[in-house]
Amino acid sequence: MSNEEQFEKIRTAPGFIAALDQSGGSTPKALGLYGISPDAWSNDEEMFTIVHEMRTRIMTSPAFDGDRILGAILFENTMDREVEGQPTAAYLWNVKHVVPFLKVDKGLAVEADGVQVMKPMPDLDALLEKAKMAGIFGTKMRSVIKQSNEKGIRAVVDQQFDIGRHIAAAGLVPIIEPEVDIHCPDKAAAEDILHDAIIEHLNSLEPDEIVMLKLTLPEKDNLYADCVAQPTVARVVALSGGYSRKEANDRLSRQNGMVASFSRALSEGLSAQQSDEAFNATLDSSIASIAAASAT
Questions:
Q1: Which listed residue (177, 179, 187, 191) is catalytic?
Q2: pLDDT-based confidence at residue 22 (cuts at 50, 70, 90)
Q3: What is the DSSP letter of 160?
Q4: Is 56 in contact with 104 (CB distance < 8 Å)?
Q5: Angle, in degrees to the nearest 10, between helices 187-203 and 150-169
Q6: Region 48-60: what's the mean pLDDT?
Q7: Segments forming the whole domain that contains residue 198
Q8: What does the pLDDT look like over 112-168, one tens digit per residue?
Q9: For the whole model, what pTM was predicted?
Q10: Cβ(146)–Cβ(110) below 8 Å
Q11: Percent of the chain surpassing pLDDT 90
C-alpha cells in the first residue's frame, strides 16, 4: 500500500521537502522572482495557470527526483490541476516517487499578542476528504510568531495542535508550522517559549497521532533535537523564512536530524527566460545543496 511506503519514506529516507505552495497572496511575488511581471495575466485564473506552468517545469525537470526529494507541498489549485496528463498528486508519487502534501490553511489573521494565528477554516473537513481522494498524504498549515510573547506563542501552538489532531483523525499527517519571523526582535527567546509549548503538546499526543513539525531555523543549534526524537513526530523540517539559500543551508547543516522544506530558497535563481538546459542545471545545483545540508 502506497500510504505505508510513503510514511516510511517521510520518516526515514534522506532528502528534503519541496514547498511549492505559494497561494493567492504570495503568487505574484513568486512569479516576479521567476521573471514574470503582473502584466502577463489579467485575472486570478490566468495567474494560477502561469504559476502552474512554473511548478510543472520544476516537477517535470530531471533534477526533481525522489532520490533527493521526499515530498512536495501543493496549493489546492495545484492539486486540482494535472501534470503530464495525471492529477498533480498522482504524478508526484507515480512518476517521481515524491510524497504529496497539501497546504490547508486559509491565511493569517491580523496580528494580536505579537503573533498571527490562522484564519478560521470552515470547509476543512470537505478539503481533507477531497485531499484523500486525490492521494494526498499529509497537510501543511502556517502561523507566524513576530514577538517573544508567551500568550501569543501559546495561542499559536494550541491552535496548530488542535487542528493538527483533527487532521490526524481524518487519516492524514499534518505538518504543524508555527513560523518564527526571522526578524523577530528576540528570536532566541521566542524560540525557547515555542519549543516548550511544542514539547508539552507532543507529550499529550496518543501514539497513533502522528505529526510533522515545520520550524524556522533556530538561533540555538539543535534546539529541536528532542522534537526530532519524539516517536509521534514523523519528521522535523525547516523553513527558509527569507534567509538566502546559502544562509539557510549553513544553518540547516548545524541541526542534526532536521531536513529542509524550502520554498523561495529552492526556486532561487530559476527564471522563465532560462533555456531548459540552464533551468535544469540551476535546479539540480539547488537541490544538491539543499539535500546535502539536510543530510546532517
A1: 177
A2: confident
A3: H
A4: no
A5: 40
A6: 96
A7: 2-294
A8: 999 999 999 999 999 999 999 999 999 999 999 999 999 999 999 999 999 999 999
A9: 0.96
A10: no
A11: 93
d(CA 38, CA 205): 45
29 has catalytic annotation: no
Residue for cell digits 529552492? 266
Look up cell 470552515; give the residue.
122
| For range 97-126, the mean pLDDT | 97
CATH of the domain at 114: 3.20.20.70
**Residue 115 and residue 190 in contact, taking contact as beta carbons nearer than 8 Å:** no
What is the C-alpha separation between 203 and 221, in angstroms, rounded?
A: 22
Kindly report the number of other CB atoms within 10 A of residue 158's CB atom: 14
- Known catalytic membership, residue 177: yes
- How many domains would you assign to the chain? 1
For residue 133, what is its C-alpha cell?
Answer: 481522494
For residue 24, what pLDDT is reported?
62
What distance in Å separates the CA atoms of residue 110 and residue 252, rounded to the nearest whole number? 30
- Asked if residue 202 lies in contact with residue 210, where contact means CB atoms within 8 angstroms, the answer is no
